[in-house]
Amino acid sequence: MPPSSILLPLSLSLCFLLPALAEPLHFDLARRAPAGVHDLNYYAAAAEHLRGKYGLAKSVAIKGRAAADINMVNQVPQPFSVILDTGSSDLWVADSSCTTCTRATPVFNAASSSSLQLSQFGTNIKYGSGEVAGQIGQDVVSMGGFTVQNQTFLAVDTLTDGLLDGRVSGILGLAFSTIASTRSIPFWQTLAASGQLTTPEMGFWMTRVRGDPTAREEEYGGVFTLGGTNTSLYDGDIEFLDMPGRTPTFWLLNLKSITVQGNNVPVTQASALSAIDTGTTLIGGPTKDVQAIYAAIPGSQPVTSMRGFYSFPCTTKPALSLSFGGQSWPINPTDMNLGRLATGSSQCVGGIFDLSLGSNIVSGGGNPNWVVGATFLKNVYSVYRASPPQVGFARLSSAAGGSEGLTAP
């Protein structure tokens, strides 16, 4: 997931050199640039990023900087806010040598770390809306009370203009090592392998701010639990579903069925592989299935000014549910409505867009055709289990806002 305000639903504090704990930790999340104040250009840019992230669009290339010697001094802990992204696997933070960062960007000062080990190698990490480049290093990295002594990360010295926003310094990838550009073991996987986590699980609850005109630039975003789940945020059992494939990459599930306005919409099973991605806003899918979804919403039509998007009458409250297994999970109509096409327009833009733009690429080698972001994830408590590799969903508790209209498929 790229470090842009478009894709900053979550942030937390990442610090160097803090004591380790064994129990699950619950982190309050912050949500930047709430959806209630976004215009349609925001969502168009989010869609372009998503296409690029999953290999369906060209990236913007940048040239990385060469390796350099760094003097070592006594350790000073340095806190950072980072994006929590189940759709990527690398950890990176902006470095003090960054030539393209804004003045507002909090940066990592390599000269202040006596435990930092910088290699002579650099790499680029590509996102749909650009790239970051820098030098690969290792340091003691902590989040809350969990610590990894020699965590590999990228000290970013160059990035595409506009990728970082506000007080955010980088990304903490929460997918698997097999897709890490730095060829490293992600922070969470090292914690699980070293026995620091009570259970090899991560849980997310995301708040909803879309449609709130009083929402500020930064709002309370929910809770992230590392090493378990937060039982106060969901009711009943968690529906855990096995991930397809032998080697985990992204957090993947097969989309089984879609219900729109009470009617079943067939899902093309050859292209049903879905990435469950906390680091993105929308839901993207293949052409045929997205067309079928909007065909089931009366008055829907393509948006000519936004590639792959559709609109529907603003008076309509789309009733959609997704099923990845035995249960059907409804999406709140508020999450499906991105706002009016223009001031005074009677048409509103939908939160599901055409990710493939007519290509209908059939998944191969674990590449997803669906990307399921916060438009869906705000409606469930989601859990990511490493062993066995599974993704789970549960009904939100009343304390978390509740889940509406849960039905069997």
UniProtKB/TrEMBL annotation:
Positions of the catalytic residues: 85, 277
Alphabetic keyword roster: Aspartyl protease, Hydrolase, Protease, Signal
GO biological process: proteolysis
A Pfam family matched in the record: Asp
Signal peptide, first to last residue: 1-22
Gene3D superfamilies: Acid Proteases (2.40.70.10)
Protein's UniProt keywords contain Protease: yes
Protein name, per record: Peptidase A1 domain-containing protein
Species: Asterophora parasitica
High-level lineage: Eukaryota, Fungi, Dikarya, Basidiomycota, Agaricomycotina
